Amino acid sequence: MKDKTKTNQVLMQELASLRQMIEELKQSESELKKEKKELKKSEARFRSYFDLPLHGIAITSPERGWIQVNDRICSIMGYSRDEIVRMTWPEMTHPDDIAADLEQFNLVLSGQIEQYNMEKRFIRKDGKVIWTNLSVGCVRKPDGSVDHMVALVEDITGSKQAEETLRNSEELYTRLIAALPDIMVRMDLNGQILSVNDFGLRMSGYAREDLIGQNMLSIIAPEDREKAVRNTMLMMEKRLGPQEYHLIMKDGRRHLFEVNGDVLRNEDGPPYGMVQICRDISERKRMEKALTKSEEKFRKAFYTSPDSVNINRLEDGIYISINPGFTRITGYAEEDVIGKTSIECNIWDNIEDRQRLVAGLKKAGEVTNLEAAFRTRDGDIRYGLMSASILDLDGVPHILSITRDITDRKWAEEELERTIESLRKAFGATVQVMVSAVEARDPYTAGHQIRSANLARAIAVEMELPQDKIDGIRMAGSIHDIGKLSIPAEILSKPIKLTELEISLIKEHSRNGYEMLKDVESPWPLAQIVYQHHERMDGSGYPRNLKGDEILMEARIMAVADVVESMASHRPYRPALGIGAALEEIEKNKGTLYDNAVADACLRLFRGKGYQLEG
Fold first, then answer.
1. What is the pTM of this model?
2. 299 in a domain, yes or no?
3. In this predicted model, what pLDDT tens digit does every residue of 218-227 receive, in sequence order?
């Protein structure tokens, strides 16, 4: 019984302990349910924070990469959740920011820092680069290793762009101020100078410390200060146009400036300062004054010029203005021509002269020394030498013409030309008499002169020499052997080889010809051509052994023509050698005995153009 009682007591104690354990379990279960409920509340709060649209939130793991991201991250990056969790962090990072981000990430993993903040660029799915403000912290395991990391991502692309725009705007403003070729002064409302640009310092000669803190009136000339104060007061009420003041430079010089000023105001607020841009107009004023003087001089020259001066519209030739010289020369008064065209007034004797004038003006903008014939009011024909240029009047092109009456000179020139032509004929007749005299004494010499002269003239034409030189060569060629009149006829016509003495006598014919012609008045150097036609380029000729440029071009041409004709023609002492031999001689010795250009022209005539000696 006693043992049974003991057993019951033990059983009751165990039962009590079991009840206590059950109660404890129930209490523990209740607390666990409470904890689960709190945990669900906490998870709900976390979820509500996690899905807030203000910031992107991402949970990452060093081993697993992206674990979870909220909708804002997807919106910022342009990817879906499924796409992001399959990517690595560097895949979305701008290449230039990977190294810096990785450096901070490694510091967190090593435990040197718990979190880091940085501005970082990501590349969206559409390829657009975005700026973000990135904050990264870590959650560690009990052993201190990183379990996962939480990143807050704020899109700051808009503010970055605004900063860039502001920076560009400030840089542009700074560059504009630096490039401004004017003085720019910023002042407070009392006129105290706060800043001056670099150009202003260079131009005025002041140092910055000379001006900062000084009143603007201190550098304005005393006579302009009252006006400056009055204009400043007016500027507070309304914007003023440019004003002119004299500013005093560091060295005491006074320059006239055009000053444009304005008041600086806060938005919808009171004014807080002033700015003035000062442009030096001293040179412009000097130019305007000089232009006024120039216009006055032009006006005086226009009305006092002895020449005819008129202004016409380029398009239709209507007269706008004429000077008294125009009336004196043409007989037309202002009321006769103003408002009419030159064609209506029948000024031009030949309308082609006006067409040439207009064409020249349109091509080059000016025409000088255009000779034209014009009619006076009485119908007389007179001649003028015109110079004209394009004149812009209020955007409409006009012709400014100055015409000098050269009628008297023209008539004198025509009379002189007739006189010269008469003298030419008289001189030609004289030469022909000389040729006839030679021909009567020595038929061989006479024929040689004519043929040589014709060939020399053809060579000169081939070389495109001026007509005056061509005429002189033809004339000299006709009498180049006139000196042979002083040589005995029996020597000239001797049918056998000449002695050395006879040859020396014949060589004197160049000098003799010069002596005959040196005092003859002529428009050409006939005497010198005759004197030099046996000289050679290397100095081996006679009678003076001239060489190179010492020999006249006309004489060089005459030398080639003389040799060709002599070799190709019959002589008393030998038969003709033929034109082939003559041309071989010229070709062989060109550049040595004969001028290169002359020799080439002669060879072209015979070999390329079929030239033949007469007779």
1. 0.39
2. no
3. 999 999 999 9
